[in-house]
Amino acid sequence: MKAAELREMTAVELTKKLSELKEELFNLRFQHAINQLENPGRIEIVKKDIARVMTILAEKQ
Question: What pTM was estimated for this model as a whole?
Fold first, then answer.
């Protein structure tokens, strides 16, 4: 997800997106632990998306 797309969202939408991304990261880590993860690179992408959302939330406050 691009930062420009995130900047157009409201704080409530960003908070919801953050919780969705954290849940996805949890599921990806769980799948990785039991060796069922098809694309391990997805973990890094989700982590970066979480960081982007948190940064933009901090900018809005």
Answer: 0.91
- Give me the DSSP letters along the chain: --HHHHHTS-HHHHHHHHHHHHHHHHHHHHHHHTT--S-THHHHHHHHHHHHHHHHHHHH-
What fold is seen in the domain 3-60? Helix Hairpins (1.10.287)
19-47: pLDDT as tens digits = 999 999 999 999 999 999 999 999 999 99
Rounded to the nearest 5 degrees, what angle is found at the Cα of 59, between the Cα atoms of 55 and 61? 120
The sign of the CA dihedral 40, 28, 3, 53 is: negative
Rounded CA-CA distance 35/60 in Å is 39
